[in-house]
Q: What sequence folds into this?
């Protein structure tokens, strides 16, 4: 739903800044983790998933980035109770992903690792809900602008992309595709696409792109 206050309202500006911050962290996180680790390790190597960077020298960046996203999501206030609940749940899931490390791709399983997968799946589902159900809403008393209609397209593409990535990750993990595609690090790339899609959606909501023209 569109903002109700004027474009220079400090409350509106703070909301937009928070959304932009969430979007920037989301878009940057996969690149920072991958290239940071390559620089520190001095070898061209991609971990098998974003979560596996917890076990590298970029582990603190991984945890810090997710916790920052969680805090920002908790701080953003929406237009009704659904926004409030979704933001607080997303915060809980993001912090859960950060604090409960994944099972390392080198082998081994644990309850904590399964908790990590559960929190990660719930986080991505909540983020897709933001894009598909909340961001696409429009004030029924106002005619949506061209930019708002274009933003809705971006939200839907991002939301469905996140869901497609979740489905693909589950398919790979639960079938023989895991052995066939293992050398290509498909989980890392699918997680990266999902995280970047989340970031683009929030940057759009923060009016970094497709901002309404001032009339």
A:
């Amino acid at each position: 739903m569109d903002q109700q206050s004027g474009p220079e309202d400090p409350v509106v500006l703070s909301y937009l800044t928070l959304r932009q911050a969430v979007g920037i962290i989301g878009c940057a996180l996969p690149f920072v983790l991958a290239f940071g680790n390559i620089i520190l390790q001095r070898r061209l190597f991609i971990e098998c998933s974003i979560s596996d960077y917890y076990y590298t020298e970029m582990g603190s960046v991984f945890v810090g980035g997710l916790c920052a996203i969680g805090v920002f999501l908790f701080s953003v206030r929406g237009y009704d109770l659904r926004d409030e609940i979704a933001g607080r749940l997303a915060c809980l899931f993001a912090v859960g992903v950060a604090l409960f490390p994944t099972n390392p791709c080198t082998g081994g399983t644990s309850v904590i690792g399964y908790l990590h997968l559960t929190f990660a799946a719930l986080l991505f589902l909540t983020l897709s809900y933001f894009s598909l159900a909340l961001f696409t809403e429009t004030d029924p008393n106002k005619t949506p602008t061209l930019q708002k209609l274009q933003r809705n397209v971006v939200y839907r593409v991002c939301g469905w992309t996140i869901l497609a990535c979740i489905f693909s990750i589950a398919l790979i993990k639960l079938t023989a595709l895991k052995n066939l595609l293992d050398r290509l690090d498909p989980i890392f790339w699918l997680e990266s696409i999902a995280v970047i899609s989340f970031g683009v959606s929030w940057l759009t909501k923060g009016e970094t792109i497709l901002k309404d023209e001032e009339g």
In short: Residues 23 and 160 are 17 Å apart (CA to CA). The mean pLDDT is 85.
